[in-house]
Amino acid sequence: MSDSDAAAKVDSAKVDSAKSARADVDTAAWSIRFELLSDPHRLDILLALHRAPGICVGDLAAAVGRSENSVSQALRVLRSQHWVTATRVGRTVSYRLADDTVHELLHWLGAQHG
């Protein structure tokens, strides 16, 4: 089969329809979301924040079985993407989910509120 035969069999309407699908979704933003969700450590933290909003780093570290340093680093990444927000009261910083889409994704995964 020659290249011209293959080109003749292409359904240009289907090709155009398939190409237009990319305009409906911000693929770069979703790629970042899935990359962040693909790390089990970050996913554990997100699930814990979902269940216990307003938790501090020490309690969060105990809940997910990681060091405070490790949890702080993960929170820094999640905050940079605006998934998590921090509130300081005196010397204590508490964290909660800030991204509604991530919140809904966690529900879709089966996460429940406490």
TrEMBL record:
Domain HTH arsR-type as annotated: residue spans: 22-114
GO molecular function, one term: DNA-binding transcription factor activity
UniProt cross-references to Gene3D superfamilies, sorted A to Z: Winged helix-like DNA-binding domain superfamily/Winged helix DNA-binding domain
Keywords: DNA-binding, Transcription, Transcription regulation
Matches recorded under Pfam families: HTH_20
NCBIfam families reported in the protein's UniProt record: HTH_metalloreg (NF033788)
Full protein name: Transcriptional regulator
Species assigned in the record: Mycolicibacterium phocaicum
